[in-house]
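Session log. Operator J.P. requested a structure for one protein chain; no other inputs attached. Running the standard single-chain path with token output.
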Amino acid sequence: MKYERSVSICDGSATDLAGEIVAALSAASMVFKDDRDYSKRLVEAAERLFGAIPAKQGTYTMVDGCGKQARMLYNSTSYQDELAWGATWLFLATEDTNYLATATETFFSAKGNESSVDKGVVYWNNKLNAVEVIPIDTQTQFSGEFVFNLIFDICRFC
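Structure written below.
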């Protein structure tokens, strides 16, 4: 690419961005589970990032230095759906029920604040309905192909 691209620097308030990255790393760790070292590095990175999400939470588009340019195209209205999304995928990757508890608590809190426009819709600004349909059953062993197809089917509508 032969044009200038600015770099955004996000402080600790980009919870929505962190949640998306945690979900992607967690899902990738499941897809690449046959490569144990790589899968482990992915899930460890997801856990470190999730653990680094500060008490001060918000959307990356609220901070000019982080998401000012994106605000016109992707003005995220909430961080809770991405936080629940990330915690759900981290639970699926690790089977650590602490992540499930966080996902559940965050989901119900976010569901109570969901706008009427977002109800029943899965898209870039609302992952709550996707969190509802992801099968959370610790007895089920997810294959990499299943996870890939699930991610593809859900995310093509985001």
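Operator note: The mean pLDDT is 81.
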